Amino acid sequence: MEELATQFKALSDPARLKILDFLLEPDRSRCTREEGVCACDVEGVLGLSQPTVSHHMKLLVQAGFVTAEKRGRWAFYTINPDAFRVLAGSLEKYHLAPVLAYCC
Amino acid sequence: MEELATQFKALSDPARLKILDFLLEPDRSRCTREEGVCACDVEGVLGLSQPTVSHHMKLLVQAGFVTAEKRGRWAFYTINPDAFRVLAGSLEKYHLAPVLAYCC
DNA sequence: GCAACATATTGACAAATTTCGATGCATCGA
DNA sequence: TCGATGCATCGAAATTTGTCAATATGTTGC
Fold it and tell me: Residue B82: closest CA among chain A residues belongs to which residue?
């Protein structure tokens, strides 16, 4: 319950949603490296300071939505689809089953 | 984008998640009325003050997750499954399609 | 009409969040 | 080895959020 709230909180900021969209479909002209999306790329896309980006990335990683891999001096980030799958699953009870309240 | 963030924010508090679970499967022994779940019932379940509950209900209604119907002096609340369906849909892109980043 | 009750709103306060500049820590290239 | 680069952390400021007491609004029953 607490953890679920934490996950939703990680998604409750427009900057972090922008980050996720960029990680999903990175505009390669905005990426400094061939190997993937690094923190400094995100900085450019969001127009936010480096510490702020670092903070947002930390929250996304802690919530499990993003995986960080440190290579050399760069940190490369990728979407973790499983976390979104699980989260979508935890929403199902609110819409999949017919809502049974006060009917049987 | 902003609106999506607002929706996630509405789900980012443990008290509000508890409210949703209670609305989904109300313990009828905790409901003062036969007709449904009213705000005062939620008060008892959460152990929060009446203004606080009113505030949480307002956020859930504004986000579209809960529908409020005022009847007499009571306000009855129900889950709105469609809102959850749409939200789950907006998560799909992060896990449904293969993540294409840097592969084509 | 009046008293009791359910809910909403207001005002206040503490805690959490977002943001940045400054600083520290690795790592790479020359 | 040294300077430059990328990222993390710290400390602080501004804003937002969660909570409650007090009050207001509206409805029911007598």
Answer: A95
